[in-house]
Design brief:
Residues 89-159 form the Rieske domain. Keywords: 2Fe-2S, Disulfide bond, Iron, Iron-sulfur, Membrane, Metal-binding, Transmembrane, Transmembrane helix. This is Ubiquinol-cytochrome c reductase iron-sulfur subunit. Pfam families: Rieske. It is built from 1 helix and 9 strands; from the N terminus they run H-E-E-E-E-E-E-E-E-E. The N and C termini lie far apart (70 Å). The chain has 166 residues and is of the alpha+beta class. Strands 1-9-8 form a 3-stranded antiparallel sheet, with no helix packed on it. A 3-stranded antiparallel sheet has the order 2-3-4, with no helix packed on it. Strand 3 and strand 4 (93-97) form a beta hairpin.
Amino acid sequence: MSEKNHNVSRRQFLTYTLTGVGGFMAAGMLLPMARFAIDPVLQVGAEGDFIAVAEVDELTEEPQRFDFSFEQEDGWYTSETTNTAWIYQEGDEIVALSPICTHLGCTVNWEGSDDYPEHFYCPCHFGLFEKDGTNVPGRPPTEPLHRYELEVRDGTVYLGRPEPQI
């Protein structure tokens, strides 16, 4: 193979050099800005945080509504969020159910309808759930109510995140 003589003109050399230097300068300015913008979103949150909700002495065999608040961080914004749980005691077991209907996200109520006593009822789309959160066949919800992770420490019920019962 024969070698070809490739000469670079001054104009091409200056173009290549200025383009390279400009690219490094742009990257040096843009990368810290991009990291500043994206870094809070990529930080790992505290998984498994449990929040004190109720005392075990307050619980009965009938589901009771308990509201609880916590601070939620979304990127740079921190807000006070309020959630609800239906909690009851079945023998030695404590059950905490989410009030969010698994059909379209409406709020269910215990004994919310006179026609269906001893059930969780969603008035928006006539969803019906048993006391343990399982959905009644033939009704709009296709899965049970989500159940909260819970711990009992020193007579206090602590709730984590709601998880599907499937």
